[in-house]
Amino acid sequence: HVLVGSFVTAESCLWIDPFPTAGAFSVYHVLQVVQTTIWSWVKFAYRLLLSGFIFVEIWRLYFRHYGLLLSNLKVYGLQGVESGSALYDIQVGDPTWMILSHPYICVAMTIDIICNSSYSVVTLFRISQLQDLWQFVLGSFCGSNLVWASYTTMRFAAVVIKRFRWEAYFEPLDASMMTLSSAFYAGPMSYMITHTPLVMVFQFLVQVLPTKKMEAIEVSVGMSMFLLIFASVPLLQAAVARTIFKRQKRKHRKTIPATRFDTTRYNDWKYLFFYVWFDPTLQAASKFGGTLYQLFDQEPQYRKFPLFSSRGSDCFVRQVDIQNGRIVGQYRLSLLHGLDFHAKDSSLRIATCTDPHLAKAICV
After folding, report:
1. In terms of DSSP H, where are the helices of the chain?
2. What pLDDT digit, counting tens, does each position of 253-263 carry?
3. 304 DSSP 8-state letter
4. CA distance 1 to 311
5. How buried is residue 84: exposed, middle or buried, by Cβ count under 10 Å (0-12/13-18/19+)?
6. Which of 118, 176, 198, 217 is most buried when burial is the number of CB atoms within 10 A of its CB?
């Protein structure tokens, strides 16, 4: 029996077929996932509620602020331009990092993975062989959901990093890029574990019930160990990236131009691909904004989420001259969601307006 907690989630069988040649044999392993109707409906309802919660949070944290932005542009405009005499082109950002850094969503997805450990075992079988490359690729893709352990670590490690003020030792990571890269390193990493002595550690962990040693295995402990391995990836990656960045900055201090935080080039890969590649519009005559990243570059302790890059959620407002269609100004707007105001630290505290406002989410 394959157990998660005290519940049977799969049935497995192992048998050995000896060959006539001494010392040669074939090993066969079969696993059948046990899926009751009630459990299927419970998972469906759980994921449906989680999906609804994600949509609500995307609206609350991000898209609802565009309504106020549109209203302000219509009423006030930019740089003293009268409303109605200018045309504004708004390029919407991507709020993915805000969802991937949400504490409730991270915990909910991690719980979902642990409760469905039997499917992770099936994925492990696909990855542990190379005879059928399609099964290996499929297993690598399915195993990439373990990246949620990385997101959970990135979110809750922020508490420790900020407690000891280690922000300067970690480079913010593109969460979307981690999703793609996990599909590539999940397979090789799992294959390495199953073909090295590390597999003995997991074999010990699944045998945590001495009374059922010959009857059942408990996969939740081993699954938690797998999650811990994937959880260590972003910490190592962020620390190495920061070390390389600082070394390159010292080595080429005089040759590397100053970073332009107000440009579209200072963004994540999705923005560069979809906007810069597919929509190569004319360059703006003047650029503004990006002051939030200038602050982060000079004082990393103001990052609220030190391991998450927030550049992808920025929107760009382009002021277009109605007469000739030229872009006369470009404004980069960033959400204050990623800024730590240090309300409890007098030496770092950022003064905020105490008057009530309808919204206070956007920072130029």
Report:
1. 37-58, 64-75, 96-100, 103-115, 117-127, 133-143, 147-163, 175-194, 198-205, 219-251, 269-271, 291-298
2. 655 555 678 77
3. S
4. 47
5. exposed
6. 118
Q: How far is CA 317 from each of CA 261, 271, 287, 361, rounded to the nearest angstrom? A: 15, 14, 10, 16
**DSSP symbols for 208-220:** --GGGTTT-EEHH
pLDDT at 279: 61
Could you report the per-residue pLDDT of 305-317, keeping only the tens digit for each?
999 999 989 998 8
What is the number of other CB atoms lying within 10 angstroms of the CB of residue 32?
12
- For 98-145, give the DSSP string: HHHT-HHHHHHHHHHHHHTHHHHHHHHHHHT--SSHHHHHHHHHHHGG
Strand, coil or helix: what is 250?
A: helix
Residues 225 and 238: their CA atoms lie apart, in Å, by 21
* 11 φ, ψ (degrees, to nearest 5): -120, 130
pLDDT-based confidence at residue 267 (cuts at 50, 70, 90): confident
Q: What is the pLDDT of residue 57?
A: 96
Phi–psi pair at 298, nearest 5 degrees: -85, -35
CB 153 within 8 A of CB 235: yes
